[in-house]
Design brief:
Maltoporin, Chain A, about 700 residues, 22-stranded antiparallel β-barrel, 39 strands, single chain, globular, mainly beta, 7 helices
Length: about 700
């Protein structure tokens, strides 16, 4: 029914570019979404010219919300979904990838500036970053293995620094419902050729549900030194200390009776309070990148980094203690030249990571480690070699081809078992190619199509899910994605439109299960069929800086996902043809922003999600929901050096009961994790800008 109602809107999105054929292109001074230059696939082109489906989240889009999380901005982009089971506990879904993520971020490769944030075990501690560690985000949808290594769930490129550098200082404070407190201080020193940034963030909250307190402290330093016209050196150091309680999933009856409750005692398993279920997570990351222009045609960018994570997790069934030191690097050579047939770019390089993990599992005695159950060393490493060629032909044709060869290995040694023979698993020689083609039809319309193979070996957490068993039977999931789309930027560059359709057939898909003791384990689910349509449009209204209203913008996005198991039998159960759990068939997001000459501004956001299947059998569904949020503020610049920003806002204005971060295939039908009801926040931001020296 929803699809039938939405079809006219999709048709409009497809047809509007035709109207742009008659429009003259005389861009004004303000850039719309399509004019943004992004880094995806190392092309450094405007969004509308990239031969891929990429969502771009700017600093302005992040600032539309309460300045404590990237989640709401992430969820207003098509084809992407971020979940929060409790404050600080994130999951991420790009075209269905949360099937492998009962918690945390897996099967999505993430880079923070030039540094790999995803560890060699395939896990990403995204929750270790504070809101102020993000300046913009690029979400590459579909397989990015040809350039970014193994992974079938997409790639995220995080940019932490603004392009417009100014000396100065920022101070931000936010308070809100459920005793939310968020403080950030930032200092920027130096000039264009030698920049330094120091930042500290402290965030606390009691949480909406019982047993959901959280605290996060993040300190980071970043520097950029332009040694000469040919060389630029960057360095970054980040330390994060995160603690949050985990309330556990509720059954449907418990959720209906009291959605704010934590998981009660059940059988031999304790309640969340009795187990003192929580996450204690500390991460240190340091890295250096160097860009060197070898000649007018050649350049090289090389990165080395080291990281260490200490992770403690008392759960309902055990107490897990992990230490995860690892290091790695990436080097990329790039060559550009104008040839008789067009502009050619060649790039090639390699990325490698090495980890020395140790995992101990104890009995959980009221939130403290008891008797040792297992003690395991996990020696893991991964590397891949990649190459890509892009040719910009005459008559506005663009061709990009690339491929990578991946290899990964993990050796598990059980120190707690005398005479244990180490278990070694290797996944190697997997070629992941990609070819993309685009054509500029007119000055306003671009068409593109691509074919890409995704390859994703099991992560360390899937091979070794924290139980006694070591699962060496898991096979890599892999598949081929076919995609085509249209992009348009017209009406004097004020209107941006994008529609794409894809089909992705995945074999050996990895899905999560839970055993009778509530422990996670993973199986290969045969084949899946994933088809979808993603559309987005934004329009900047023409206004004059001399009028009361100085800027206005509306943005809409729509996602339709038709994801099913095409072949999946588990014992005597046949799930072939069932809908993939964790993915809503239809999602609609809309936003409206308004700014005035006196400095008053508003931002309203609407989000709709279809019902979501919660298990492979499709016998339980999370209810659909409509969310409305708004922000009202006043921003003023004084004496060209000082800026004040006062704001108030509210989320979930309809006070909807809904579950965000559902536990998929949960034992005992404990699927539901309630999201906050109606909540409010208020904040103040101060910025001082030091004028440049003349």
């Amino acid at each position: 029914m929803f699809m039938k109602k939405s079809f006219p809107g999709i048709l409009v999105c497809i047809c509007i570019p035709v109207l742009c054929l008659s429009q003259s292109e005389s861009p004004d001074s303000s850039k719309v979404l399509g004019e943004v230059v992004i880094k995806a696939f190392e092309q450094n082109k405007r969004l509308k010219e990239i031969t891929a489906a990429v969502n771009y989240i700017s600093q302005a889009q992040l600032d539309r919300f309460n300045n404590t999380s990237i989640l709401p901005a992430f969820n207003t982009t098509p084809g992407a979904r971020m979940e929060e089971r409790s404050p600080g506990s994130y999951r991420m879904n790009i075209r269905g990838s949360t099937l492998r993520s009962p918690f945390g971020v897996r099967n999505v490769k993430i880079y923070w500036d030039d540094l790999p944030l995803t560890d060699p075990g395939g896990n990403t501690y995204l929750n270790q970053l504070a809101y102020y560690n993000f300046n913009s985000i690029e979400i590459i949808k579909g397989p990015g293995s040809s350039l970014y290594g193994s992974g079938s769930g997409g790639v995220i490129l995080i940019n932490s620094l603004t392009d417009n550098w100014t000396q100065g200082a920022d101070a931000n404070y936010i308070t809100g419902s459920y005793n939310l407190q968020n403080i950030n201080a930032q200092v920027r020193l130096g000039q264009e050729d030698h920049r330094n940034l120091f930042s500290y963030t402290h965030q606390t909250s009691d949480g909406y549900r019982d047993h959901t307190r959280m605290r996060r402290d993040v300190v980071n330093w970043q520097t950029s030194i332009k040694a000469n016209e040919r060389q630029e050196l960057k360095a970054a150091v980040l330390y994060g200390d995160l603690y949050y309680q985990t309330p556990g999933g509720l059954t449907q009856s418990e959720y209906a009776a009291n959605p704010r409750a934590a998981r009660p005692k059940s059988g031999t398993l304790p309640s969340a309070d009795q187990a003192q279920a929580a996450i204690f997570q500390k991460t240190f990351l340091a890295g250096i990148s160097n860009t060197y222009y070898i000649s007018n045609n050649w350049q090289n960018t090389s990165v080395v980094y080291g990281a260490f994570t200490q992770f403690k997790n008392p759960t309902f069934r055990s107490y897990e203690w992990r230490t995860e030191p690892h290091f790695g690097g990436r080097t990329t050579f790039k060559w550009n030249r104008i040839t008789p047939i067009g502009q050619l770019q060649l790039l090639f390089g390699t990325e490698a990571q090495k980890g020395f993990f140790n995992t101990k599992s104890f009995l959980n005695v009221n939130g403290n480690p008891g008797t040792l159950q297992t003690d395991d060393d996990l020696n893991n490493w991964t590397y891949f070699i990649f190459a890509q060629a892009s040719l910009q032909l005459k008559k506005n044709w663009n061709i990009t081809t690339g491929a990578s060869i991946n290899r990964s290995s993990i050796t598990i040694t059980r120190l707690s078992t005398p005479g244990f023979v180490p278990v070694k698993t290797t996944f190697s020689n997997q070629l992941a190619p990609r070819i993309a083609l685009s054509k500029k039809i007119t000055s306003a319309i671009w068409l593109y199509a691509s074919v890409a193979k995704g390859f994703s070996p099991p992560t360390v957490a899937e091979l070794f899910p924290g139980t006694v068993a070591i699962n060496t039977s898991l096979q890599p999931e892999q598949g081929t994605n076919y995609e085509a789309g249209i992009k348009s930027s017209c009406l004097k560059e004020r209107l941006y439109l994008e529609v794409n359709a894809f089909t992705y057939r995945l074999s050996n898909a990895i899905v999560v299960r839970k055993d009778a003791s509530n422990a996670n384990y993973y199986v290969n689910a045969g084949a899946t069929r994933q088809r979808g349509i993603e559309a987005q449009t934004s329009y900047n209204f023409f206004v004059s800086p001399h009028h009361f209203i100085t800027a206005a913008r509306v943005q809409l996005s729509y996602t339709h996902d038709d994801f099913h198991y095409s072949d999946f039998k588990q014992g005597t159960a046949d799930y072939s043809g069932n809908r993939l759990p964790s993915v809503p068939p239809n999602v609609v997001a809309g936003s409206f922003d308004l700014q005035t000459k006196p400095g008053l501004y508003t931002a309203f956001t609407y989000l709709y999600n279809d019902p979501i299947a919660l298990n492979d059998a499709n016998t339980f569904y999370a209810s659909p929901f409509h969310l409305l949020g708004g922000k009202l503020g006043w921003k003023r610049v004084m004496h060209k050096k000082y800026s004040f920003n006062l704001f108030v806002g509210a989320d979930n204005l309809f006070n909807v009961n809904y579950s965000l971060g559902n536990d998929i295939n949960a034992t005992g039908d404990r699927y539901f994790n309630a999201a906050p009801g109606r909540s409010y926040y208020a904040g103040i931001a101060f910025q001082w800008i030091r004028p440049p020296k003349m």
